[in-house]
Amino acid sequence: DTGVSQNPRHKITKRGQNVTFRCDPISEHNRLYWYRQTLGQGPEFLTYFQNEAQLEKSRLLSDRFSAERPKGSFSTLEIQRTEQGDSAMYLCASSLEGFVQGQDEQYFGPGTRLTVT
Amino acid sequence: TQLLEQSPQFLSIQEGENLTVYCNSSSVFSSLQWYRQEPGEGPVLLVTVVTGGEVKKLKRLTFQFGDARKDSSLHITAAQPGDTGLYLCAGARGGSNYKLTFGKGTLLTVNP
After folding, report:
1. Chain centroid to CA A9
2. Cα dihedral A42→A33→B38→B6 (10° resolution)
3. How many angstroms separate the CA atoms of A44 and B33, rounded?
4. Interface test with A, best of B5, B54, B98 (most A CBs within 10 A)
5. What is the pLDDT of residues A56-65, one digit of tens each?
C-alpha cells in the first residue's frame, strides 16, 4: 500500500497562469476527493468522484477550476487564470465506499502547495 | 459559520502532562474522524468513531464520541514531543455522507 500520492508537492506560478495537479489514490479506492486548506483553517471540500463520475462540486469551485478522473483511477485538478487568492494547500483524499453510509475513512495525500505571485 | 468548533485553538504543554481537546457542533454526524497534521503534510487519519458514546483507544490517545453524535473529545496521556501537531476533527453528515466538514484544529506543542 503506497498511500495517496500527489504531484507536484510545490508549485509557484504567476497570476494568470494555468496550473494542473495530479492525485493518485490508493489503488482499490473508488472514491476520490479534493480539498483546499488555507493557513489557520481546516481543509474545505471542493469536489468528489465516485469512480469516474464527478458527483458534487462545492461553491468554492469557481468556473476557473476543473477536475477530472478519466478512468476512475488518478485525478487532475486544473486551475485556469490563477489568482493570488488561489494560494493554498490542495489536498487529495481517497476512500473505499463503506458498507454503511457516512463511515468511509478518507486517507489524504501529502498535498500540493500552490503559491500564486 | 464554523460547523465544527475545536477548542482550545492552541495548546502548549510539557512532556508527561495529560491533555484533552474538544470538537463540538450543533449538528449530528453519522461519523467523526480525527486526524493529525504536521506542517507541509496532509492529515493522517487517527481514528473514526461512528456510534454515540463510543470510546476508542490508540495507545496513549483516547477518543470519545458524544451520546448524541454532536461532539467528540481526544485525550492524550503522558504527552510526548512526538505528539506535537495540528489535531483536526472532521464529521460526515447523513445527507452528504461522503464529504468531510473539518474544524480549524487544535495546534498542540509538547515541549521536552
Report:
1. 12
2. 30
3. 15
4. B98
5. 899 888 899 9
